[in-house]
Design brief:
By secondary structure, this protein is of the alpha+beta class. The chain is built from 3 helices and 6 strands. The chain has helices at 9-31, 34-38, 69-73, and strands at residues 41-50, 60-63, 83-94, 97-111, 117-133, 136-153.
Length: 162
């Protein structure tokens, strides 16, 4: 049987805080809380969107926390709140810095000008550089990579109650 390395309580706390940062990011996206989502980045943080997973350069690059508003406000173009399912995350800690990769399935519901409803599902990955400042973790750089997307017709959104 292979022995596992001992993990310090600080490393456990940092790993939990990084995972919470990742989950809060998608919660804010789904709730369309762009302002809170922006606050998860350091003031000069970068956000890059790669629509082609093989591209060397991003399709979109945002530098600085305040520049992120249009990127995050874009979620308001969808007909219903989005749903992101975070999957596995791999994080490497190095003191007050970390790198990570998180897999996510994102669901986006749209209604076209012709009334046609569609559901776009995207398999995405986030490649992150993180930094801990004043005891709190932030994104220093976040790369959003679209591995694939599928768009299908949708029956619509149910807003029924229990």
């Amino acid at each position: 049987m292979t022995s596992r390395p001992t993990i310090s309580s600080q490393e456990i706390a940092d790993r939990l805080a990084v995972r919470e940062l990742i989950d809060v990011y998608t919660y804010c996206a789904d709730r369309r809380d762009a302002r809170r989502q922006m606050e998860l980045f350091i003031p000069d943080g970068r956000f890059m969107v790669f629509t082609d997973p093989m591209a060397a350069e991003p399709a979109h690059l945002f530098r600085g926390r305040e520049s992120l508003a249009p990127a995050f406000d874009h979620l308001n173009t969808y007909a219903a709140t989005t749903t992101h399912f975070n999957g596995q995350s791999t994080v490497s800690l190095d003191g007050d810095r970390a790198t990570g990769q998180t897999y996510c399935l994102a669901h986006h519901h749209s209604v076209g000008d012709d009334g046609q409803r569609t559901m776009m599902i995207a398999s995405i990955r986030y490649l992150d550089k993180l930094v801990k400042q004043d005891g709190q973790w932030f994104f220093a750089e976040r790369r959003l990579i679209f591995d694939w997307t599928e768009t299908r017709t949708s029956a619509g959104v149910s807003s029924g109650s229990w």
